[in-house]
Structures are given as C-alpha cells and as structure tokens.
Amino acid sequence: MKQRKENKTQVLAHWFVTEVIGRPWTNDDYRSMHMRHAADLLKDYSLEDIQGCLKAMVDELLGELPFGIKSLTAIRGGEPPWISRWFEYKKDPPPIYEVDNYKDWKRRTDAAAQENGYLESELSNVTLSS
C-alpha cells in the first residue's frame, strides 16, 4: 500500500487555527481562507519558517504587535515585513555566553543553528561567572 504524503497546507492551516487562533478545527475549516492562505504562503516559504515567524510574532520577539493575528498572511505585513524580521532573527544568533537567550534562539531556529555550526555540545562548556 502506498503511503500518503503529508499535506503541508492542511498541517499549517490546522496548526494556525488550533495553536495561534486557539479554537478547535472544524470541517468548515477545510474550505476556509486559512487553507487558501497556507497554500499561497507555502509557495514562497517553508512550513518551519512560517510557523517560526508566527510563534515569534505571538511572543512579540520580533517587535510589538499593533494588532491580533487573525490570518496567516499577517507575516507579510509590517514595515519591514514580519517574515523579513524572522529571517534576520534566524540569521543572527545571540552570543553563546548568553546561555538562556541562545538556547531559546536555538530551539526556535534549530535548522538555522545547525546551518551556522552551533551545536548543543558547545553549550555544555559554557559557564557563567558572577
């Protein structure tokens, strides 16, 4: 039997509705604007980048939000756009001696951390002096 391929559009839309908006997924959501927006965004960005950007927006890590997030397309808003801010955040890790900030950055941007050569083993050698 052929294994089904994961539908990233549905994964993203479901995650957005349940985790960001905070309501249960319904059958009507299969035909919703969230599915259309997810499909459009996945043409330009990876699932991980979209989710990472939205999580960072919710946590106000990329700046203060002047509005609530009601749509996936919110990542394209702002000046500079929120998704651009996410890529800047991903690209520039905090200093490794700021252990908590670095671990948070690594957790949020694990793929970026691996690309830049920062490994969890580096953190085990870091000690903070008072």
Key terms for this structure?
mainly alpha; globular; 130 residues
**Mean pLDDT over all positions:** 82
Please tell me how large the radius of gyration is. Answer: 17 Å
Summarize the helix and strand pattern as letters.
Answer: HHHHHHH
Helix content: 40-55%
- Number of extended strands: 0
Oligomer description: single chain
Estimate nothing, just give the exact number of structural domains: 1
Structural class: mainly alpha
Strand content: under 5%
| Overall 3D form | globular
- Given as residue ranges, the uncertain stretches (5+ residues, pLDDT < 50) are 118-130
- Biggest β-sheet strands, sense, barrel: none
How widely separated are the two ends?
A: 61 Å
Helix count, DSSP H or I runs of 4 or more residues: 7
Quick rundown:
This protein has 130 residues and is mainly alpha-helical. Helices cover 52% and strands 0% of the residues. It is built from 7 helices and no strands.
